[in-house]
Write a structure and sequence with these properties.
Length: 145
């Protein structure tokens, strides 16, 4: 499995969880932070990685460029509709949730509490491993435990 395949796997799960939380239009920030939460919560539960993607700490928190590439590919394949440079209409796209139910429920609860992307960014920014990682450096899930 390639890293781009990993990105599609986590993006599809992120979109499915965002939809489950009531969203039909999502932005890059929400998808990126939800993907990170999937990776984090999966690691916290299993002590294994959900994918082999590496997240770096940037201005809006955890970032991986392959997540953006996967979103853009879904848009160019017309599985989701690009609304503007940062928003996507996902109403008619129904990907599978590839995470354990316990993780999915926890993340949906977080997403419902943080309805707006910047609230979600603040939540993720305040996670221990993100707070302790300098700008531009790799975020280590092991610090979360």
């Amino acid at each position: 499995m390639s890293l781009l395949d990993d990105a599609f796997r986590v993006v599809n799960s992120a979109i499915a969880l965002l939809k489950k939380s009531g969203k039909v239009v999502v932005d890059r920030l929400a998808v990126m932070k939800t993907a990170y939460l999937i990776e984090r919560e999966y690691f916290m539960l299993t002590k294994k990685r959900f994918t082999n993607l590496i997240y770096f700490n940037y201005t809006y928190g955890p970032y991986n460029g392959l997540i953006v590439q996967a979103l853009e590919k879904l848009a160019s394949d017309r599985k989701i509709e690009k609304d503007d440079d940062y928003e996507y209409i996902v109403a008619f796209y129904n990907p599978d949730i590839n995470v354990p139910e316990k993780i999915g429920k926890k993340i949906v609860k977080i997403l419902k509490r943080h309805k707006y992307s910047f609230s979600l960014v603040d939540y993720v920014h305040n996670l221990k491993e993100v707070r302790e990682t300098r700008f531009g450096e790799e975020i280590r899930f092991e610090k979360a435990a």
